[in-house]
Structures are given as C-alpha cells and as structure tokens.
Structure prediction request, 770 residues.
Amino acid sequence: MRDVFIIGTGIVPFGRYPDLLLEDFAKEAVTEAVGDAGLGARRFDMAIFGHSNGGRVAGQRVLRELSLTGMPILNVENACAGGGTSLHVGWMAIASGLHDLALVVGMEKMERGLIPPNPGEYESFLGKTLPAKYALRARKHMQRYGLTIEQLAQVSVKNHSAGALNPNAHYQQEVTLEEVLASRPIAEPLTLLQCCPTTDGAAALVIASAEVADQLGRRGVRIAASVLKSGIYRNSSTDATASDDDLAERAAAAAYEMAGLGPSDIDVAEVHDAFTIGEILAYENLGFCERGEGGRLVDEGVTALGGRLPVNTSGGRLSMGHPLGATGVAQVVELTRQLEGRAGARQVPRARAALAHVQGGSTPGIGTGAAAVHILTTEETTSVH
Amino acid sequence: MRDVFIIGTGIVPFGRYPDLLLEDFAKEAVTEAVGDAGLGARRFDMAIFGHSNGGRVAGQRVLRELSLTGMPILNVENACAGGGTSLHVGWMAIASGLHDLALVVGMEKMERGLIPPNPGEYESFLGKTLPAKYALRARKHMQRYGLTIEQLAQVSVKNHSAGALNPNAHYQQEVTLEEVLASRPIAEPLTLLQCCPTTDGAAALVIASAEVADQLGRRGVRIAASVLKSGIYRNSSTDATASDDDLAERAAAAAYEMAGLGPSDIDVAEVHDAFTIGEILAYENLGFCERGEGGRLVDEGVTALGGRLPVNTSGGRLSMGHPLGATGVAQVVELTRQLEGRAGARQVPRARAALAHVQGGSTPGIGTGAAAVHILTTEETTSVH
Prediction:
C-alpha cells in the first residue's frame, strides 16, 4: 500500500440550514477544499461522499453544482461512522495505486431532527433509543469505576470551551458545570448539554498520492493509518455483560500497528462524543488511559486545550454538532489543520501526530455498527513509544 | 493491483416480500454464497452492501442475523448502479492487497414502489421521471437511426423468454410481440412490458485473492476488469444534443483496456435494461455493434439465447425485476454461473468472457449518475480481438 497525504481541507459552519438543499451547503465545503489544495484545472480521479439522509446519488448532485463530474463518484452510508468510512474508501483507492487524487466529503442535512429507528429495531421503538443506550453505559461506568456525574458534565464544559473558539461550531459559547448539570434531563444521568444537538453540516478533504502531493507542494500531512471495523454482535437485552468497548479498542489497536505509533505518541485527538459518556469510554478504548480512569483524565485537565493530550479541540460533537456522515470528515479537517499549525485560537503547540475516532450504528444490539480510526502524522513523525 | 476471483454466489428469488424485512431475505443470499464458496469457519475480512432504501447500517443488520460480525462492514449507495459500485469497492479492497476475502451484497426492498425524486429535482416533479426520460431517448433513436417500435418490443420478448427459464426471475413467463405492443402505454413509445417491474431482491458474491481462492479450490472466475465512472453533466433541458451515451462508453473502454479484451471477445453479457431502449443503447455504448445498429442486433437474434452474444440471459431487469442496489450483484451472479457452466437451461455454451453493465442515477440532468462495468473471465481466457 502506498502513502496517502491530505492536501486540502474545507468545512462549512455547522448549524441549521432549513432553507437550503444539502447540495447548496455541501458544495461550499468542496470549493474550499479544492482551493486549499491549489488544484487549478486538475481533476479528481474519484470522489467519495459519506451521508445517511442525502437520498440517491447525493454526491453526484453536489458535484453537478460545481461542474465537477466525469470521475467515479460513490456514496457511502455507515451511520455516525459514515464520514470515517468514506475516508477509508478514499484512502484505499489511493493506497492501492488505482488512483492518485481523490475527494472525500462528509455531509448531512438532519431534516427529521431525530434519527428514526430502522424497521425491525423493536428495542428502539420501545424506548431504547441512542440517548437511553448511552445513559445505560454511563450508569454502568459509574457503578463499576466510580465515574461521577460531575466528571461526565466536565466533558461538556471542556468541549464547549473549545467550541467557543471555533467559528465553524454550531454552539460557540462556554457553559458552566452548573449549567450542564441543571439542564433538562434527557436520559439520566445525561442532561441536555451532554447530548449532541441536531445539526446540518459538511466537510471535505482532498487526498493524494506522494507524487501528486509533491507536484502540488503539499506533502504535509500523511494518513499513517486508516482502519474500519464493525462490532461483534451481542444481544444487550439478554446479555448483561455485553459491551461494545472492544469495537473501538480493536480498531485503535489495528491503527496503532499500521502507523507504528502508540497512544502516548498522539498529540491531539477527535473522538466520538455524541454523548459525554462516549468521550470517557473513548479515552479508555483508544488507550489514552487505563480502563476506568477516563473520568480522572478529564478531571485533571489532561484532555483540555493546554493539557498533555487535547481531545475534541473542534468543540467535538457536543459543541460542533453531529451531522452523521459529516462528522468523521470534519474531525480530520480539524486535525489536519492542527498538524499544519492552522488551528487558530485552538492550536495545539508542536502537534505532530493526531487520531480521529468515529463510531456508531450499533442499535439495537451491541457492536453491530462501525468504527473508523485514522492516525495522521506530519511527514517527519517517528514513533517514540 | 492483484488478481481477484469470484469464489461463491448466492441469490434469492426476485419478487415481492411485503411481509419480510430486508434483512430477512438478504441473509438468505449471503448464506447461499457462503455455502457455495465452502468457507467453513473462515471469516470475511470485509463486507460491502449496496442498497438505496435499506436505512442506516443495513449491511450490519443483515450480518447480525447470521452472527457474521466483527469485520469492516460498509454500505454503498449509487442508485441503479449501487450493486456494481459495491463490487468495485470490494474488488479494490482485495486488488490493493489490504484484504483477502470479502463479501459483496446487493439488496433492496422497494417499499415505496416508485422511486421518489430527490429534493431539488424539479424536472422530475414536473413529470420528467425515469420512464419519460427513457421514452425521449427512444424517440431520438427512432428519429435518428430508424429504430422501430417492433425492435424495441422485441427486447422485452427476448428477455422474458430467458426469464421464463430462470427460477429466480420475478416474472417467469414468455410474452409475445403483440402482448408487449398492446400493453398499457407508460411513456410512449414505451409500454408496460418495456419497463422493469417493482421488485424486491438480494444477491451476494464471495470474492478472494488468488491465494485464498486456491486454498478453497475455487480459482475459476477472475474479475478481469472493474470500472466505475460517473457522467459528465450536461443540462438536458437546455441542451438538445445532450446524451449520456458517453458514460457507458467511457466505462466500457476503460474496462476493455484493463482486461486486455475487446467487445468481440465477450461471450455473454448482462446490461442495464430497466427499459427496452436501455438495452439497445447499451449494445452500442458497449461496442457490441455500431452506433444506430442496436435495433438490428436484436432483430437478427444475435443477443438472444442461442445467438452469437446472448445478452441478459437472466431475464434482465425486464423479467428479473430491478431492485436498485441488488441488480449489479445479481448480474454478476448470473455471469459467474454462466462461466462456471452452472446456468441450467440458460447455459451459453463455451462461455469464457462475460461483461456486466449497470447504470443509473442521472435524473434530472444528463450524465450525473454512475455506471459500473465488470468483465469476468475463466482462468484460461486470452484475448482474440
């Protein structure tokens, strides 16, 4: 497999676009990424679009608006992991030697607000929706490891604090611990400010082989690992010990091996904080701390801006919002800009290795969804683990 | 890129499954393909599912039913070309060296009957639906090249004749030329029996590297070419010369080059006959005859069972039915079985090279969709063109 580089990034401000079509705002992310890469008249060899609600050939509809047609275009669906999955397909197309220059777009218009259950997902119809599932995970962690509701809430405080510095975040305001705890209960112990809002958005990446990256003078950020996994199914209704922690764990282990790096090499990360407990579990599953120590990590400020390993410097899903297919690509836009030193007020000093983790789609059972883990490095990065 | 082999096929009878969930019948196609490949306890490295209406993580829902989880699973949408696109992604995963054994599934439950227009497709809302578009293409061909309504209708007669021999076809009965012409007009000159029915279905392929194919004793059918393209956008409302013939033409040219074969090497083909005119245009775009000669080809029986180049021996979309994402995979199931000599009453003698063409998603403009062309060969095939 050949090296693959990220040579352009684009993103639109996340928020609500009730009066626009998906293609109207998604094309803006593409235009920015194309301009950032300095492609000129050069055309993509392939384009991959991640989304869940876009309807048929949504990627083609976006590129038609820009008269960027003729190359292979495909659309990928993988629930909350759709964006990361799209990048994995794009990475494969270039790493394989088949193509040299590809566009990867994540986009979503969350028209229906809530995510409707699939037919046959009886548990969801009976109330075991995503917030309820995450609430159960939080309860279990509190019981087993002594996680506190304040530690949980602190994840929201931290991510909103970063989001306040991000002009592309849906909610750009800080919140206090008291405000998080006092906000409306959604599925206890999770309160409103511990759940991601309903958000539209789009983000785009231009990725290239070493040869094309060199031609364009943009061999800055390399995809050191690209891993997609799905979970091992267990019925969470009948098996009380069921957990899907192993999904992110296995994806991360494979990514670290592919990159030749370990968790201690990571300087900045974006992880899947659709709910606060998700970020706590991600710390542990990705090896940022020992099992059960996630609450302590956020308490000690390790994962805040200015800490040893800042996590969700974009504001995360809690502050950016979580347009399903857009999220995985938006994470990588943030991390690429961190590695390029272009993250503005959110810049992590001397960031050389970054990790993106996105995960979802496991209702109603455990572990049947998907997780994508990408590790990005600056060209000169070598492992110190 | 490494060689990729098809080592197992599965398909469920196409028809209507109003009382079943998508996963209920799709899993049966997977089970047949797994059994056909003789995988035993061996697990897939990756699984790719093509569909347009399956909802979120539909592939994961299917494999959960079979306790086949843990590998990377992704879902692909590309309208009528979704199945061919899925095979292209699977081919890429193995040809790249990343994986050795993959599952490719096309499936669809056409719950809504008709295909609703995407938001923003104003022409479709105003009546320029798929049947109307294909009717315009037919009119143009009649005007320019003298295609007759009898030649058009003969495509339906031919494909229903093949479908009558296929236990997996939705409609397994022959129709006469008179019946086709006398059936209800849908968008003149296209009558009801010249339009594909509304059909649910699923098909599955097991694909593998040479090493794994050898281990399982199944190095029979090779994917000699896998090509995905999208069209070059032109506004068909303002540009009377606009045509999307070049989409299949460019995809086929790239496939012939990759395979080192030409149109005259092909022994059997499945082409996109969602409407009769689609098959006529495909003959010309794929190089089976000169431009304008498509009507003559069907008139002379060249593409019928027993002809020099049988096309749509499965019964095609007209008789099999056309569950969007399922179609591209079902085509390759048919062709693989033809090359293996397992096509029963539809067997084409001495078939050594086969071509599958699937195409769609170009509403409302021209050429913004996708086309996938795959060429399959028996191991000993070499070009004679």
